[in-house]
Specification:
The protein has 126 residues and is mostly helical. It contains three helices and two strands; from the N terminus they run H-H-H-E-E. Helix content is 71%, strand content 5%. Strand 1 and strand 2 form a beta hairpin.
Length: 126
């Protein structure tokens, strides 16, 4: 795979993304111009408002506030632990030259890598 092929594939992807964006815009326009649809949207918004109000009342109970704090704290810790594990797995893979690892239960887990491109925010070439 050479650079020209990658650039060509990027160009095709960008064109498809633009085509999808245009098509979605056309569908949105059609939906927003339909009175039955817009009425259903308004009814749905009212229903969601009532649902949120009921949910907020339940969550604001003292015992539920404590549970929500625990969920947030545990979620933060989980995110941190996953980031640490990711770094450890990269290091382990480099040292051991393997494509898998076994957990304490004997289950094999395979390494999966994801690479994405992002545009530099100030459009400088690196």
């Amino acid at each position: 795979m050479d650079l020209a092929q990658i650039q060509q594939r990027l160009e095709v992807i960008e064109k498809l993304q633009e085509d999808i964006k245009k098509a979605k815009s056309m569908i949105d326009d059609a939906l927003n111009n339909d009175s039955v649809y817009t009425k259903a949207v308004e009814e749905s918004k009212e229903s969601l408002r009532k649902k949120k109000q009921a949910k907020d009342q339940i969550i604001n109970l003292a015992e539920n506030k404590q549970l929500m704090k625990q969920i947030k704290d545990d979620g933060d810790e989980l995110l941190t632990l996953k980031e640490i594990l990711s770094e450890e797995l990269i290091e382990y893979r480099q040292k051991s030259k393997t494509e898998s690892i076994q957990d304490k239960r004997g289950q094999t887990h395979y390494f999966k890598f994801l690479v994405k491109l992002s545009r530099n925010s100030n459009n400088k070439e690196s």
